[in-house]
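Now for my pick.
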Amino acid sequence: SIGEAMKYVLSVCFLFFFTTTLVFANDHMIEDKQNQLTEQKENKRRSLIFTLKQDQKLRHRWFYGWTVGLGALTIGHTSVVFSANHDETRVENGVAAIASIIGMGGTFISPLAPFQEDDWDESFSNEHLEKILRKRARNESDAKGIFEHILCFAIAAGSGMYLWKKEDQPLSAGMTFGLNLLLGELQIWTAPTFAKTWWQTRHPELAP
């Protein structure tokens, strides 16, 4: 009958409308999810690039600042060695100059030195950028490790012991030990940790 035919047509139309709406809603949800994932990926990428740039800037500032500062100290102590009239003054400044040279050498072999960095580009994938950042975080952790403090103490103690035992200058030995230890520790504690902080904030479960 016509009534049953109309019911059938209406049922088919309703089913078609319902199915179409469901498919459209599902596609829209998938698209929104993809957009969210893309936005999260881009946000992470911007964060990685900013962190690498900022970390590189701080590393260069630390490296060149200490290189220039220790170089100036070396020149100053060396000039006193050649211009002083007293042997004790020449010896004291000679030891200080050697300690400054060793400190400057430590800056050059540090994993934070610019020429120790891996090359990178903004076109790198997020995974590659994150790998480079993790290596930098590890290097920054090593730069403040126990070995660095032991080496600093050994250099300061060696310069002090030489003046005390070899040159019989206990007062100069104490002052030289204290100043070299202070400078060495200051060099260690001023080393940048930008990459390390970023990594530990986002990956606390993983060591740098």
